[in-house]
Design goal:
Blueprint (H helix, E strand, L loop, with lengths): L2 H9 L6 H14 L24 E8 L7 E9 L4 E5 L8 H10 L5 E5 L10 H13 L21 H13 L11 E3 L17 E3 L3 H17 L5 E2 L14 E2 L13 E2 L6 E2 L16 H6 L1 H15 L4
Protein backbone atom coordinates (compact mmCIF):
# COMPACT_ATOMS: atom_id res chain seq x y z
CA UNK A 1 0.00 0.00 0.00
CA UNK A 2 1.33 3.42 -0.96
CA UNK A 3 2.17 6.12 1.57
CA UNK A 4 -0.58 8.34 0.14
CA UNK A 5 -3.11 5.56 0.57
CA UNK A 6 -2.02 5.01 4.18
CA UNK A 7 -2.34 8.69 5.04
CA UNK A 8 -5.77 8.81 3.43
CA UNK A 9 -6.95 5.90 5.55
CA UNK A 10 -5.45 7.46 8.67
CA UNK A 11 -7.49 10.63 8.36
CA UNK A 12 -10.67 8.93 7.15
CA UNK A 13 -13.39 8.21 9.66
CA UNK A 14 -12.95 4.44 9.46
CA UNK A 15 -11.20 1.36 10.77
CA UNK A 16 -7.38 1.25 10.38
CA UNK A 17 -6.18 -1.82 8.50
CA UNK A 18 -2.92 -3.75 8.93
CA UNK A 19 -1.09 -1.77 6.20
CA UNK A 20 -1.63 1.51 8.06
CA UNK A 21 -0.59 -0.01 11.40
CA UNK A 22 2.54 -1.50 9.84
CA UNK A 23 3.39 1.87 8.25
CA UNK A 24 3.46 3.36 11.76
CA UNK A 25 5.57 0.46 13.09
CA UNK A 26 8.11 1.02 10.30
CA UNK A 27 8.53 4.62 11.48
CA UNK A 28 9.02 3.39 15.05
CA UNK A 29 11.75 0.96 13.97
CA UNK A 30 13.56 3.74 12.09
CA UNK A 31 13.54 6.19 14.98
CA UNK A 32 13.72 4.11 18.15
CA UNK A 33 15.34 1.05 19.66
CA UNK A 34 12.00 -0.75 19.74
CA UNK A 35 11.41 -3.54 17.22
CA UNK A 36 7.63 -4.01 16.90
CA UNK A 37 6.73 -7.04 14.82
CA UNK A 38 4.50 -7.24 11.77
CA UNK A 39 0.84 -7.23 12.79
CA UNK A 40 0.06 -9.79 10.07
CA UNK A 41 1.80 -12.41 12.20
CA UNK A 42 -1.50 -12.85 14.09
CA UNK A 43 -2.54 -15.19 11.26
CA UNK A 44 0.33 -17.56 12.16
CA UNK A 45 1.44 -16.76 15.74
CA UNK A 46 4.54 -18.97 15.49
CA UNK A 47 6.05 -16.28 13.24
CA UNK A 48 6.43 -14.00 16.27
CA UNK A 49 9.95 -13.89 17.73
CA UNK A 50 10.47 -14.13 21.48
CA UNK A 51 11.59 -10.96 23.28
CA UNK A 52 14.00 -11.28 26.19
CA UNK A 53 15.85 -8.86 28.50
CA UNK A 54 14.49 -5.63 26.99
CA UNK A 55 11.40 -3.48 27.30
CA UNK A 56 9.10 -4.02 24.34
CA UNK A 57 5.76 -2.97 22.94
CA UNK A 58 3.58 -4.57 20.29
CA UNK A 59 0.30 -3.69 18.61
CA UNK A 60 -1.81 -6.84 18.41
CA UNK A 61 -4.92 -7.76 16.46
CA UNK A 62 -7.93 -9.73 17.58
CA UNK A 63 -10.61 -10.64 15.07
CA UNK A 64 -11.49 -12.37 11.82
CA UNK A 65 -9.35 -12.62 8.69
CA UNK A 66 -10.27 -11.53 5.15
CA UNK A 67 -10.89 -8.51 2.94
CA UNK A 68 -14.01 -7.49 4.85
CA UNK A 69 -12.74 -8.66 8.24
CA UNK A 70 -13.64 -6.67 11.32
CA UNK A 71 -11.43 -6.90 14.38
CA UNK A 72 -9.83 -4.98 17.20
CA UNK A 73 -6.40 -3.40 17.81
CA UNK A 74 -4.73 -3.10 21.20
CA UNK A 75 -1.30 -2.26 22.59
CA UNK A 76 0.79 -4.36 24.98
CA UNK A 77 3.98 -3.35 26.79
CA UNK A 78 6.52 -5.69 28.36
CA UNK A 79 8.55 -4.30 31.27
CA UNK A 80 11.72 -6.33 31.53
CA UNK A 81 12.42 -5.20 35.10
CA UNK A 82 9.17 -6.64 36.47
CA UNK A 83 8.57 -9.24 33.73
CA UNK A 84 5.03 -7.86 33.55
CA UNK A 85 2.92 -7.49 30.39
CA UNK A 86 0.70 -4.41 30.48
CA UNK A 87 -2.38 -4.37 28.25
CA UNK A 88 -3.66 -1.00 26.98
CA UNK A 89 -7.07 -1.50 25.37
CA UNK A 90 -9.45 1.33 24.47
CA UNK A 91 -12.51 -0.94 24.39
CA UNK A 92 -12.24 -4.23 26.27
CA UNK A 93 -10.80 -5.53 29.51
CA UNK A 94 -10.11 -9.12 28.53
CA UNK A 95 -8.07 -11.22 26.07
CA UNK A 96 -9.05 -14.32 24.13
CA UNK A 97 -7.05 -17.55 24.01
CA UNK A 98 -5.36 -16.60 20.72
CA UNK A 99 -3.92 -13.40 22.21
CA UNK A 100 -2.72 -15.23 25.32
CA UNK A 101 -0.99 -17.71 23.02
CA UNK A 102 0.74 -14.82 21.22
CA UNK A 103 1.85 -13.31 24.54
CA UNK A 104 3.29 -16.68 25.59
CA UNK A 105 5.36 -16.76 22.39
CA UNK A 106 6.44 -13.11 22.58
CA UNK A 107 7.34 -13.01 26.26
CA UNK A 108 8.26 -16.49 27.56
CA UNK A 109 9.69 -14.97 30.77
CA UNK A 110 6.59 -12.95 31.65
CA UNK A 111 5.33 -13.22 35.23
CA UNK A 112 1.81 -11.85 34.79
CA UNK A 113 -0.54 -9.87 32.55
CA UNK A 114 -2.10 -6.65 33.85
CA UNK A 115 -4.91 -4.65 32.26
CA UNK A 116 -4.31 -0.92 32.58
CA UNK A 117 -7.07 1.67 32.89
CA UNK A 118 -7.08 4.03 29.90
CA UNK A 119 -9.42 6.45 28.18
CA UNK A 120 -12.04 4.68 26.07
CA UNK A 121 -12.70 5.24 22.39
CA UNK A 122 -15.91 7.16 21.55
CA UNK A 123 -16.93 4.90 18.65
CA UNK A 124 -16.64 1.36 17.37
CA UNK A 125 -13.86 1.78 14.83
CA UNK A 126 -11.05 3.92 16.29
CA UNK A 127 -9.27 1.19 18.25
CA UNK A 128 -6.27 1.37 15.90
CA UNK A 129 -5.86 5.11 16.46
CA UNK A 130 -5.90 4.64 20.24
CA UNK A 131 -3.54 1.64 20.14
CA UNK A 132 -1.06 3.81 18.23
CA UNK A 133 -1.59 6.71 20.66
CA UNK A 134 -0.87 4.38 23.62
CA UNK A 135 2.25 3.05 21.92
CA UNK A 136 3.50 6.57 21.17
CA UNK A 137 3.03 7.64 24.79
CA UNK A 138 5.02 4.61 25.95
CA UNK A 139 7.81 5.40 23.47
CA UNK A 140 8.05 8.91 24.93
CA UNK A 141 8.24 7.56 28.48
CA UNK A 142 4.70 8.54 29.40
CA UNK A 143 2.01 6.50 31.10
CA UNK A 144 -1.05 6.00 28.83
CA UNK A 145 -3.20 5.63 31.94
CA UNK A 146 -2.46 9.27 32.75
CA UNK A 147 -3.05 10.55 29.23
CA UNK A 148 -6.32 12.30 28.43
CA UNK A 149 -6.23 12.33 24.63
CA UNK A 150 -8.32 14.96 22.91
CA UNK A 151 -11.68 13.61 21.75
CA UNK A 152 -13.90 15.87 19.65
CA UNK A 153 -17.23 15.06 21.30
CA UNK A 154 -18.94 17.96 19.54
CA UNK A 155 -17.95 16.67 16.10
CA UNK A 156 -20.94 14.64 14.92
CA UNK A 157 -19.00 13.23 11.94
CA UNK A 158 -15.64 12.20 13.44
CA UNK A 159 -14.98 12.39 17.15
CA UNK A 160 -11.36 11.31 16.70
CA UNK A 161 -10.55 13.97 14.09
CA UNK A 162 -7.79 15.59 16.16
CA UNK A 163 -6.09 12.25 16.87
CA UNK A 164 -6.42 11.05 13.28
CA UNK A 165 -5.07 14.32 11.92
CA UNK A 166 -2.07 14.02 14.26
CA UNK A 167 -1.47 10.42 13.15
CA UNK A 168 -1.73 11.51 9.53
CA UNK A 169 1.02 14.08 10.17
CA UNK A 170 3.23 11.35 11.65
CA UNK A 171 2.83 9.24 8.50
CA UNK A 172 3.57 12.21 6.24
CA UNK A 173 6.58 13.54 8.17
CA UNK A 174 7.80 10.12 9.41
CA UNK A 175 8.54 11.90 12.69
CA UNK A 176 7.10 10.59 15.95
CA UNK A 177 5.33 13.13 18.15
CA UNK A 178 3.17 12.58 21.28
CA UNK A 179 -0.54 12.62 20.60
CA UNK A 180 -2.38 15.79 21.72
CA UNK A 181 -3.92 15.67 25.20
CA UNK A 182 -5.97 17.97 27.42
CA UNK A 183 -2.90 18.72 29.54
CA UNK A 184 0.52 19.99 28.58
CA UNK A 185 3.77 18.34 29.60
CA UNK A 186 6.22 20.87 31.06
CA UNK A 187 9.84 19.81 30.88
CA UNK A 188 11.99 19.82 34.02
CA UNK A 189 14.84 20.65 31.65
CA UNK A 190 15.18 20.64 27.87
CA UNK A 191 13.28 17.95 25.97
CA UNK A 192 15.62 16.11 23.65
CA UNK A 193 14.79 13.74 20.81
CA UNK A 194 18.03 12.14 19.68
CA UNK A 195 17.87 9.86 16.66
CA UNK A 196 21.54 8.79 16.99
CA UNK A 197 21.88 5.06 16.40
CA UNK A 198 18.13 4.95 15.73
CA UNK A 199 17.34 5.50 19.39
CA UNK A 200 15.22 8.12 21.04
CA UNK A 201 16.63 9.71 24.17
CA UNK A 202 13.83 11.34 26.04
CA UNK A 203 14.32 13.65 29.00
CA UNK A 204 11.61 12.86 31.52
CA UNK A 205 8.98 15.50 31.93
CA UNK A 206 6.55 16.50 34.63
CA UNK A 207 2.98 17.52 33.98
CA UNK A 208 1.27 20.79 34.84
CA UNK A 209 -1.77 18.88 36.05
CA UNK A 210 -1.55 16.25 38.76
CA UNK A 211 -2.41 12.58 38.33
CA UNK A 212 -5.63 12.90 40.32
CA UNK A 213 -6.99 15.77 38.22
CA UNK A 214 -6.04 14.06 34.96
CA UNK A 215 -7.83 10.89 36.01
CA UNK A 216 -10.94 12.90 36.88
CA UNK A 217 -10.89 14.36 33.35
CA UNK A 218 -10.54 10.88 31.87
CA UNK A 219 -13.43 9.55 33.97
CA UNK A 220 -15.59 12.51 33.00
CA UNK A 221 -14.90 11.95 29.31
CA UNK A 222 -15.66 8.24 29.64
CA UNK A 223 -18.97 9.01 31.34
CA UNK A 224 -19.81 11.51 28.62
CA UNK A 225 -19.04 8.97 25.94
CA UNK A 226 -21.12 6.24 27.59
CA UNK A 227 -24.07 8.40 28.59
CA UNK A 228 -24.20 10.88 25.76
CA UNK A 229 -27.32 12.47 27.25
CA UNK A 230 -26.90 15.79 25.48
CA UNK A 231 -25.04 14.60 22.42
CA UNK A 232 -27.06 11.55 21.46
CA UNK A 233 -27.56 11.31 17.73
CA UNK A 234 -30.25 9.45 15.87
CA UNK A 235 -29.60 5.90 14.69
CA UNK A 236 -29.85 6.44 10.94
CA UNK A 237 -27.28 4.16 9.32
CA UNK A 238 -28.16 0.63 10.42
CA UNK A 239 -25.89 -1.31 8.05
CA UNK A 240 -23.31 -3.29 10.06
CA UNK A 241 -24.31 -1.39 13.20
CA UNK A 242 -23.12 -4.28 15.39
CA UNK A 243 -19.56 -3.71 14.14
CA UNK A 244 -19.71 0.08 14.37
CA UNK A 245 -21.17 0.60 17.83
CA UNK A 246 -21.02 4.15 19.15
CA UNK A 247 -22.00 5.03 22.75
CA UNK A 248 -23.47 8.36 21.66
CA UNK A 249 -25.95 6.89 19.17
CA UNK A 250 -29.45 6.76 20.65
CA UNK A 251 -30.25 3.12 19.86
CA UNK A 252 -32.79 2.52 22.61
CA UNK A 253 -35.13 5.29 21.49
CA UNK A 254 -35.15 4.28 17.83
CA UNK A 255 -38.64 3.59 16.49
CA UNK A 256 -37.39 0.14 15.44
CA UNK A 257 -36.49 -0.69 19.04
CA UNK A 258 -38.93 1.34 21.17
CA UNK A 259 -42.28 0.04 19.89
CA UNK A 260 -44.21 0.59 23.12
CA UNK A 261 -46.71 -1.75 24.76
CA UNK A 262 -49.24 -4.04 23.13
CA UNK A 263 -52.14 -2.14 24.66
CA UNK A 264 -54.21 -0.98 21.68
CA UNK A 265 -57.53 -2.80 21.40
CA UNK A 266 -59.05 -3.55 17.97
CA UNK A 267 -62.60 -2.16 17.71
CA UNK A 268 -63.75 -5.24 15.76
CA UNK A 269 -62.09 -8.37 17.15
CA UNK A 270 -60.69 -7.12 20.49
CA UNK A 271 -57.16 -8.15 19.51
CA UNK A 272 -54.29 -6.41 21.35
CA UNK A 273 -52.00 -4.44 19.07
CA UNK A 274 -48.99 -2.08 19.16
CA UNK A 275 -49.60 1.62 18.58
CA UNK A 276 -47.79 1.65 15.23
CA UNK A 277 -49.33 -1.58 13.97
CA UNK A 278 -51.17 -1.26 10.67
CA UNK A 279 -54.99 -0.89 10.90
CA UNK A 280 -56.85 -4.00 9.88
CA UNK A 281 -53.84 -6.29 10.24
CA UNK A 282 -55.62 -8.56 12.69
CA UNK A 283 -59.12 -8.94 11.17
CA UNK A 284 -59.14 -6.64 8.12
CA UNK A 285 -61.39 -4.18 9.98
CA UNK A 286 -64.06 -6.76 10.85
CA UNK A 287 -64.11 -8.59 7.53
CA UNK A 288 -62.82 -11.73 9.24
CA UNK A 289 -65.26 -13.20 11.76
CA UNK A 290 -63.32 -15.14 14.35
CA UNK A 291 -66.51 -16.08 16.20
CA UNK A 292 -67.22 -18.62 13.47
CA UNK A 293 -63.88 -20.22 14.21
CA UNK A 294 -64.79 -20.50 17.87
CA UNK A 295 -68.12 -22.16 17.03
CA UNK A 296 -66.53 -24.79 14.78
CA UNK A 297 -63.17 -25.01 16.50
CA UNK A 298 -63.51 -28.70 17.46
CA UNK A 299 -64.39 -29.61 13.89
CA UNK A 300 -61.36 -27.74 12.55
CA UNK A 301 -59.11 -29.43 15.09
CA UNK A 302 -60.26 -32.88 14.00
CA UNK A 303 -59.75 -32.06 10.33
CA UNK A 304 -56.30 -30.71 11.09
CA UNK A 305 -55.26 -33.84 13.01
CA UNK A 306 -56.60 -36.15 10.29
CA UNK A 307 -54.58 -34.24 7.70
CA UNK A 308 -51.42 -34.64 9.79
CA UNK A 309 -52.01 -38.38 10.23
CA UNK A 310 -52.60 -38.77 6.50
CA UNK A 311 -49.31 -37.07 5.76
CA UNK A 312 -47.59 -39.49 8.16
CA UNK A 313 -49.10 -42.42 6.20
CA UNK A 314 -50.83 -43.76 9.29
CA UNK A 315 -54.11 -44.31 7.35
Amino acid sequence: MSKNHCTALAIHNSYLNDDVINAFLDIVKLQTSFIPQNVLFYQTPLMYSAVENVDDFQILYDGSIGNDAIGHWLCVYYRNETKCVEVYDSLYHTLNDNLFEILDILYPSKSNVVFKSVIKQPDGYSCGVFAIAFATSLIFGRNPSDECYIIDYNNMICKTWTLRNHFNNILISTLLQPFPTHHSHVAQSTDILSLKNKKIKIIKTKTAIGRKKRKSIINKNNRTAMQGNKNNIEWNNKEKSAFNYSPIVDYKNSRHIKIGLMDKLCNFCDALKWSAESPGLCCSNGKLNYNLLKIHQNRYVVLFLVKILQNLNLF
